[in-house]
Prior knowledge:
Blueprint: H1 19-29, H2 32-45, E1 49-51, H3 62-74, H4 92-99, H5 114-121, H6 130-137, H7 159-170, H8 174-185, H9 197-203, H10 208-218, H11 231-241, H12 247-253, H13 256-261, H14 264-271, H15 275-286, E2 308-312, E3 318-322, E4 330-332, H16 334-343, H17 347-384, H18 386-391, H19 401-408, H20 412-419, E5 423-426, E6 429-432, E7 440-441, E8 450-451, H21 452-464, H22 474-483, H23 490-499, H24 505-520
Parallel strand pairs: 2-5
Antiparallel strand pairs: 1-4, 2-3, 5-6, 7-8
Helix pairs in contact: 1-17, 5-6, 7-8, 8-10, 9-10, 14-15, 16-17, 17-19, 19-20, 22-23
Amino acid sequence: xxxxxxxxxxxxxxxxxxxxxxxxxxxxxxxxxxxxxxxxxxxxxxxxxxxxxxxxxxxxxxxxxxxxxxxxxxxxxxxxxxxxxxxxxxxxxxxxxxxxxxxxxxxxxxxxxxxxxxxxxxxxxxxxxxxxxxxxxxxxxxxxxxxxxxxxxxxxxxxxxxxxxxxxxxxxxxxxxxxxxxxxxxxxxxxxxxxxxxxxxxxxxxxxxxxxxxxxxxxxxxxxxxxxxxxxxxxxxxxxxxxxxxxxxxxxxxxxxxxxxxxxxxxxxxxxxxxxxxxxxxxxxxxxxxxxxxxxxxxxxxxxxxxxxxxxxxxxxxxxxxxxxxxxxxxxxxxxxxxxxxxxxxxxxxxxxxxxxxxxxxxxxxxxxxxxxxxxxxxxxxxxxxxxxxxxxxxxxxxxxxxxxxxxxxxxxxxxxxxxxxxxxxxxxxxxxxxxxxxxxxxxxxxxxxxxxxxxxxxxxxxxxxxxxxxxxxxxxxxxxxxxxxxxxxxxxxxxxxxxxxxxxxxxxxxxxxxxxxxxx
Length: 521
């Protein structure tokens, strides 16, 4: 049979991922912070979109808008009883006499003096007009706008700026200042030098000894311990400033691994002191700052806003509703769209307006669909985890994505996107939606399975109730769980204990004994 080419028609089905569909999928997995940032960009890009006023909009909250309106109202004109209505002569001599202060260094606006402009603009027999008060408070603004109060608020100084100011005073040599600035740039928000000092010296064509000298100078700066390359060096710097870095303390800091395990017996041998001195040294070490740079703060902390709110209903059930503050809304300005469409003449303008209108309509529909999907998934989770909301973590049911997806008629991937970076506010606290999905742990009697999160909570409860004389090993925890009808392996208990950041039974026993000695001391 000869091989030849020919044309054939074939019919089939395929899913075409259009840009709009991709956008809808992205919106579904966005957190409320990411969604707000995305909509902000869309509002700047699409002139036919506008933020919805009031609750749920992406503009400033009502409190902020109220403050802005009150500030604007204050400049519309003085109210009855306002001090600005009083007939005040605002020349410097009168103010000096009334206030008892020297007004010779008073700030004056550009152009005429504030007092002269006020007298020129004010009608005869009247006090300060709104315009003159605006100009006086506006610190030299002559355009009649309200003063920009944000321009007068001092920005919070960060760690690098604080160190740079000290460097300028401590290093008069320009060469050392350049090296010091490079070292400061390599210090992270915690106050540690993360960049290799040899690399910094090689980049600046300097000797390593010279870079070490500058680093030693920076390590004397405030806050104490800044510029250290590891935790031991950070603690050593602070101890040296307190004149407590003796040979015994030096050996103590050099063995932080033993300090973390609270192996005080071995530390006493290494340091050459008795157990009582080791307890005192450990207490002094705890009073030091392991992260000297955190006093200056790092990245701004984003407050957590729940996407779904669950409240107890009057009928004994649960009310599930979306949090309007976490759902910013946008509207399509159809009147403006019609206006610009009528004014458009060229094909390029008409195509641009048509695309903007199509994208705006699709975006609003995608946001509505996203809100409905989140509500459906959250309602099903609440229905399945009713025992958790009523009784607590011990009654959390094992749950997977397929169970929720089958119940609401959606795909597992859709449920996974909905539960990512979404939070639910319940009477028991705020939880990520992923928290309610956990593996199942079989029972010894063959009954209903237990949730892995509930088992993890029971392990934590057992360890919290330990006494120094009865510290539970992993095998003992397994036996107690099996007595509670939970079939679990020892390695699973160890894995859950590690996930809770709970040390082993040997380390816990040492810690409890050391704590008892410190309490007695």
